[in-house]
Amino acid sequence: GPQIPFIIERKGIRVGFLAYADHETPFAYAKEFLPFETGPAKAYKESITRDIAALKPQVDVVVVSLHWGIEYQDVPNARQIDLGQFVIDQGAHIVAGHHPHVQQDAAWYKEGLIIYSMGNFVFDQRSRPKTRESRLYTVTVTKEGPVHAQYRPLELVVNDWQPRPTGPNYIRVPRPPAG
After folding, report:
1. Lesser CB count within 10 Å: N end or C end of the chain?
2. Angle of helix 45-55 relative to helix 78-89, nearest 10 degrees?
3. 161 backbone φψ class: left, alpha, beta (φ>0; ψ -120 to 50)
């Protein structure tokens, strides 16, 4: 059935959240969930379309979380690009992607933002240095959607595993020129 969204209101802006695991991504959800009647919502395009259409009249901004992509790949694959653009085309404003354990750059698409992979935030992987790099994103929105996005580079320090900034500044996610 339809997903029950999480809705918050801040400064007069209502933001709705939906979340999916991409059923076409290996290891996108644990097989231990399979015996349960309710489990991770799978990222079928029909479900996403239905859920966004039901949510949009209730909120100003729609954020869709997607557990997708191939682990340890630092660029999004064709499935992520297609699905991310599809989600924005259905009316979402922000796609928040995770699963690869490493960073993949964010991209503006039309008036929406697709964060392909935020990297690890708190996950103690010793063997791969890239899994200890992460980003904390800040996205400024109005009732019309996202207007500015930036991230703070982070590092997960070995044996501490607390995310720590690697520098004092946020880095802007550049928008392509209009036209």
Report:
1. C
2. 30
3. left
Quick: pLDDT tens for 51-71.
999 999 999 999 999 988 877
Q: Over the stretch 146-157, which tens digit does the pLDDT of each residue have?
A: 999 999 988 877
In terms of pTM, does the model score above 0.85?
A: yes
